[in-house]
UniProtKB/TrEMBL annotation:
NCBIfam families: FPPsyn. This is Farnesyl diphosphate synthase. GO terms for molecular function: metal ion binding; prenyltransferase activity. InterPro entries: Isoprenoid_synthase_dom_sf, Polyprenyl_synt, Polyprenyl_synt_CS, Prenyl_diphosphate_synthase. One of its GO terms (biological process) is terpenoid biosynthetic process.
Length: 328
């Protein structure tokens, strides 16, 4: 783990991002479907490996590491248990995100041909294979959150505590289901070609995009020793406010990029929202107002971090900056 106090904020963030992205790729490569039938394994790995910003898993790991600063006297063996817990949670979030992209890109949804700079999964492998791979990735996410001693070869004492496993599963399920990502997508599909108020648009994106980003921060907070597996309510509330703000900011920036960037830069088809007559922050507010709103949300995220009381939140600050400054 990088020693943050020895680095300037920018150097610490760059070093941390590089190392954690490497950790994520290694973990996903190790855990994604080694025992699956060959065709299914190939489709799953195509969908989740070697692409994407990894923002959601990075938020899990950043939140985890920030909260672990409250436990400097923890034994090395216990630090390792909680690090493994956080890495599993990070991979689980990315698997849910990747499965949602596979399904969203299919002809029955958004009918997209390019994702992360390469053909979408259904274009590459066919619709049936893509659908099945998405289903399998969703299930694998929850497998990772509930490791078994006999499968991992790890003593029970070195596994994630059962209460934490249950909490992580509950957070992720709610963020992915009807009260989160799937619910937001249903609202989105129902409003193609229809006008929405800013409040209705914000509600849709709070579910569709924001719920999983907020859950990432929440899950990272749970990946640390807490009394009865429950984090301090004030700390958790502040981190949730941070996650809510950057979750919404991510979507606002996404709408701006869809209207202003080209397909090569985005790694996906540009201008799809306008072509499909979907309501967006740009169509509702205009580009300049949407950019200003993203900046306002970033400021809200910074204010929330100040309320956490954590000694070092520079990585969480850097991830919020990345959301606002991204170009793809």
């Amino acid at each position: 783990m990088p020693h943050l106090t020895a680095l300037s904020p920018s150097a610490a963030a760059a070093d941390w991002l590089h190392q954690r992205q490497h950790d994520m790729e290694s973990a996903l490569s190790h855990w994604v479907a080694p025992q699956a039938p060959a065709d299914l394994q190939a489709t799953m790995r195509y969908a989740v490996l070697d692409g994407g910003k990894r923002l959601r898993p990075l938020l899990v790991l950043a939140s985890h590491e920030a909260v672990m600063q409250q436990h400097p006297q923890l034994a090395a063996s216990q630090v390792a248990v909680w690090h493994d817990t956080a890495l599993r949670a990070a991979c689980a979030v990315e698997l849910i995100h990747a499965y949602s992209l596979v399904h969203d890109d299919m002809p029955c949804m958004d009918n997209d041909q390019m994702r992360r700079g390469k053909p979408t999964t259904h274009v590459q492998f066919g619709e049936a294979a893509a659908l099945l791979a998405g289903d399998a990735m969703q299930a694998l996410a929850f497998e990772l959150l509930t490791p078994l001693a006999e499968e991992t070869g790890t003593p029970e004492s070195d596994l994630t505590p059962p209460a934490t496993q249950a909490a992580l599963c509950a957070i992720l399920a709610r963020a992915a289901g009807h009260r989160g990502m799937a619910g937001g997508q249903a609202i989105d599909l129902a409003h193609v070609g229809k006008r929405m108020t800013q409040a209705a648009l914000q509600h849709m994106h709070t579910l569709k995009t924001g719920a999983l980003l907020q859950a990432s921060v929440r899950m990272g907070c749970h990946c640390a020793p807490h009394a009865n597996a429950h984090p301090d309510p004030r700390l958790l509330a502040a981190l949730v406010q941070y996650g809510d703000a950057i979750g919404l900011a991510f979507q606002v920036v996404d709408d701006v990029l869809d209207a202003t960037a080209d397909s090569a830069t985005l790694g996906k088809t540009a201008g799809k929202d306008a072509a499909n007559d979907k309501p967006t922050y740009v169509s509702l507010m205009g580009i300049e107002a949407a950019q200003a709103y993203a900046t306002q949300l970033h400021q809200q995220a910074m204010q929330a971090l100040e309320q956490t009381g954590l000694p070092d939140t520079r990585i969480l600050v850097a991830l919020a900056d990345m959301v606002i400054q991204r170009r793809y």
